[in-house]
Every structure is written in C-alpha cells, then in structure tokens.
Amino acid sequence: MRIVRTTMALCLLGLLLLSQKLYVAEGINEYIRLVEWSPDGQKLFVAYDDSDAQVLDTSTFQPIITTISPDIAARAASWSPDGSLLAISDSYIGVVIVDSANGAIIREIYADGFAEALSWHPNSDLLATHYRKHSGSASQHYINIWNPLNGELIISEQISFGENGNITTLAWNPNGSLLATTATEYGALILDPNDLSLQVQLLEGAESPHAQNTVSINGTLSLSWNHDGTLLATGSTYGILRIWDTNTWQQIDFSLLPEEGLNLSQIEVEKIEWNPTQSLIAIKSPDALLLYNAESLELIEQIDSSVYDFSWSPDGDKLAYSKVDGLHIFSFPNTPPSCTYSPTTPTDLVNAITDANGTPEPDTICLTGSTTYTFTTAYIPLNALPAITSEITIIGNGATLTRQTGSPLFGFFEVSAGGSLTLENLTLSGGDVGNDTGGALVNEGGTVTLNNVTFSNNHANTGGAIDNESGSLTLTDSTFENNQADYGGAIDNDTGGTLSISGSTFTSNTAALDGGAIHNDGGTLTVTDSTFTSNTAGRYGGALDNTGSAVLSGSTFSGNSASWSGGAIRNTNSLTVNNGSVLESNAATLGGNGEGWGGGVYNTSSGTATISSSTLSENEAIQGGGIRNHGSLTLNENTQLTGNSASSRGGGIYNAGGTIQLTDSALLNNTATGDGGAIYTTSLGSQVTITGSTLSGNTAGASGGAIRS
Questions:
Q1: Alpha-carbon separation of residue 9 from 38, 246, 292, 433, 571 (angstroms)
Q2: Are the CB atoms for 183 and 165 separated by under 8 Å?
Q3: Whole-model pTM?
Q4: If phi over 0 gives left and psi between -120 and 50 gives alpha, with beta otherwise, what is residue 221?
Q5: Rounded to an integer, what distance in angstroms lies between the CA atom of residue 361 and that of residue 446?
Q6: What phi-psi label fits residue 82: left (phi over 0), alpha (psi between -120 and 50 degrees) or beta?
Q7: Each residue's pLDDT tens digit, 67-88
Q8: Contact between residue 500 and residue 474 where contact means Cβ atoms under 8 Å apart
Q9: Distance between terminal CA atoms of the chain?
C-alpha cells in the first residue's frame, strides 16, 4: 500500500505550533512529485515518481482511485471547476482528461511536444497548456487553449524567447478574463485569452540582492493571483517575492527570501501559491517551504525543507506538501479575531466606535452572535452611530442592526474620508434617511469592505442601502433585498467612487426612477459572479442604470424590469458584459414615456457596449426584445441572443441609428410581432456588420424574419 504520511500542525501568527503526527497509511515511504487539491476540497491528486498517480479522499487520505494509469508520468495537473475532471500533463501522451470518480481517461489531447504547464479556466471548459517543441538545439514555445471535453484546439500562439526563456507556470485570474504566464528572463506575461495577445509584461530587476547568489539569469519562475484577482504575486530566480497591483500593474511591495539557513545557490522562488481565504502566501524554494504574511510580506516561518510540491485546500485551512517520505498536511485554521471591544447594547456600540476613532491602531469590534441591536435615536444627524474616522472592523457574528419602526429618520454608518470600515457577517435593516443618501451606509471618501453582509428594507432618496459618494466600496458574498430609493434601489455609486462586487445577490430592490438595484452614477463598477433577480425601476435600468464605467463578469440578471427602458440594464457610457454572463427573462414592456425599449439592454446614443461570451434569452420589450441600440454595440465570442421577443420591432435587436459589430455570435429563435425577428435597423445612420455569425429560426409577424432595415 502507498504510504501517505500526514503531519497535523497548527501555526499562524502567534498560535502554538502542535507537533502531533498522524500516519494515515503505513508502508514504504514514497517520493510524491505532484500535489493538487480539488476545488471542492474533497479530493487530493498525488503523482508518484514511478509513473503512477492516485486520487485521495481528504477526509481519510486513503485512495479513492488506486491508480489512474501505470503509464502516466505526470508533469502537471489541473482540476475542472466542479472537481469532476482532472487534466494531467503526461510525458508520453500529451494531456489526458480523467474522470476523478473512477480514474477513466475520457480524452487524450495530442500535440507535437509535451505540456510543461497547464491551467483549467475557473468557470468554463477551457484548458490552457504550454507546449515546448524541440527543433535541433532550439526550443519553440506554444501556448494553446483547448476545449478539454472534445479535444478541440481553440487557439495556439507561439511565444518567442531568447535561448534562456522558458515557461514554467500558467494561471488564469479568478474571473478568467486574463491568463498569466512566467517567462523566466522575460518576466511575467499577462495575456488576453481571446487571442493570446500580450497585455502587460512584468520584468524583474537586473541586480541580485544576494551577494553569493550563483544564478546567472534574473527571471520570473512562478506567480499566483490572490482570491479576487486584484493582486498578483511573482517569484524570481534571485529569491525575490513581488506583489503587483493588477489595476495599475505597478509593483506595490517586495521581499527577499531569507539568507540564513538557506543554500544561496538554490534560492529561486520555484512556486508561489496564495492562500484562498487568508492573508498568507506559501513559497517553495529548492531548500525550503516558507510561509509569508501576504499583507506585510514578513516571513512567518519555515515550514519544512526539501519539499517537492505543495497545494492549499480551497478553504485555506490546510497545506498539503510532499517530501521524499510521503505526504504532509499542515493545518492553518481561520481563527477568531482578537476583539478590541465586545459591545452588547446599542449604547455600548456607540461608545466602542467613539473609543476606536480615538486610537491610532486598527480596532476590531465583535458583536454578540445572533443578537438584534435596535436603535431608536440618531447619534449624529441621520446616523445611529458615530462617523468612522479610523480603521475599524466590526465582526457581526450573525447580529442585526435595526432602526425601530416609527423612530426618527436615520441610517447606521457614515465613513469619512480617511476612515476605513470593514463589516463581516452582519445584517443592516430598516434604515431610512428620507430624501437624503445612503439608507444604511454612506461612504464619503473612505474605504469600505463588506463580507457576508445583508441589507434589507432600507430606504433613501439615493442609494436605498448604500451611497458610495467617493472612495472605495468592496462587497463579497453579500445580500441586498427589498431596499428602496429614487435612484439606486440598493446602491448608488457616484463619480469618484469605485465599487467592486463579487459573489453577491440583489433581489427585489426598487428604484422609483433609475437603477432598480444599482445606479452607477459616473463611478467605476466591477461585478463578478453575482445575481440580480426581480429588481425594478420606474424609468430606466431594472437592475442597473450605468452612466459611468461598468464591467459585468460571470453574472446573472433575471426577471428584472423597467417601466421605460432597459429591463435589466441601461447604459449611457461604457459597459462590458463577459465571461458567461446571462440576461434572461427581463422586461421593458410597459411603454412608459412612449418607450419600452431593450428588454435586456438599452444602449443609448452616448453608450459603448461590448458583450462577449454571454447569453441574452427570453427577454421582452416593445422594441428590441434583447437589445435596443442607439450607440456603439459589439457582440462577439459566441454571444447568443435566443428566444427574445418584441411586441413591435426587433425581436433580438432594434438598432436605432447605432453601429453594431456582430462577430462569431448567434441570434436564434427571436420573434417580433412587427418587423425584424432577429434585427430591426433603421435606415438613418445605422450600420450593422455581421461576421462569422448565425441567424436562424427568427420570425416576424410583418417583414424581415431575420433582418429588416
């Protein structure tokens, strides 16, 4: 039987290191060359040095699959997003796709050479591989993107290097919009996966920081994205860990691997992996496995030496790594924060914030679990609590802050410029500021971070739950329901405001005028993997009214409606929809103001909208069941408009003097009671260019089943 040796330990920022060792299976020690944790955390892929591999059950670390194939010599591995499949780079075959339930090889992908690195797209069936082909003494490097299910090669691009260039790592960013690769002396390359064009090149410095370092090439060997893709860590041949801001692509910090106790001729950063949930980075050099604080880049500890490979569990609690004697598991549990204050009443919370504002260091306030803090009066005008002027984190532990019915008008939080507020696991309910802004929270130039926060039944004139007047607002795994405003039923994001949303839900929010869920009023908006359902607007943008810059990735807009136009979205500025986003069953059918335009999207004459790899289906409007376009509209990368309907013209698209570029996309089974089942375009100023696209099954009650112009 294979040995799987497990060391259970607890070590993180001052916690006691436990040395208890558990042996899951006894036998002869084995050299494990590869370790890769599955996305659901229930399986661990391990590859041995003798051309054998197994999948282990992580609850017992016993084999689920005893052997995948005795002929596989695994060089790299990557799991599908749901963990049902595993891509393995094999020295003999190329790449094999394996069913992780039974070890069956369901697909073999051949190429002229073997894959030295591979990475499965985080939310779709795309697999990126690096192949190196040898031609005499020279090497040619190719990055390929495949459909791993049918083996189709989608795109291939040769990457040109000098004699010392090589690709060692491939990694998609968390939303799959960028592909990063290392290129040793050519740094890190950030590629557009649609055409593998170079977007950014990140170069290492020219000087060695270690006087005794014998490495001749100063290049990038490894890289890793953080959980939301806002930061990228790179590691060099000279033992340098660098952190890059992916908005500006500027280096924001760096650290040198420690000289003491390490062999300086082997100080390369061979592998980096960011902890999925905690501020930790694990680094492997030839000599050591090191753990760093991701915020300060301080070395926490050297975990072990002579490690072959490692992988974090998806919950960030465990680190699996391999040595010559088998597999080791270290535990790094998310531990409760140290609480500066623990208020039990609304008055205590007021006092805690007042005290925290007066201290220079960050403070953490921990509320009593599942308790309701009911406020009856405002502490400052329109706010139940003091304005946040320092760095404060409030851990809700499932608590609720609520305004008692019938109390004077007020919300809960105001964050001043320079202030920083983090809320976690908390509900804010019943805030009402009347004709003012931000029913529960207003940000006036500070930094606000919300993790697992629920906003319900709040009301304001602008931003029923939140008004982000300026500054930064980041939402993760949060919920907005039944909030109301004239503009931005849930959130208003003003010019100068940056709003980032991921994994969040907006349901049944209402705007009397524009932006049922969000009114992006000149700000910068990014939405990833979020859902907008049954939001309504009295005029424009049932879910979103965008007058700024908005990027919507992998998100779903369903059952939203607007009385005038833009059942899901109205855009007057810059809009990008991509990465498998879905707009379905949205409506602009009431005909308010004589409109009823764009069941899915209404793009005005000043708007530029690009929709890629997305679907608009079953949307309804009077004109433009899927889209009404007056500006510049680009549809590409297999975007599909299916089953949309217009009670007048343009079942799929109504083009009113705008420009449309339709490339490699499809309009299928759309209907119009009048003209233009797929597309209706007016003659004045309109331009439609169709390339490599399909229009099929569309019908019109009058003329132009496909196109009427």
A1: 21, 34, 17, 50, 52
A2: yes
A3: 0.63
A4: alpha
A5: 16
A6: alpha
A7: 776 566 777 889 999 999 998 8
A8: yes
A9: 72
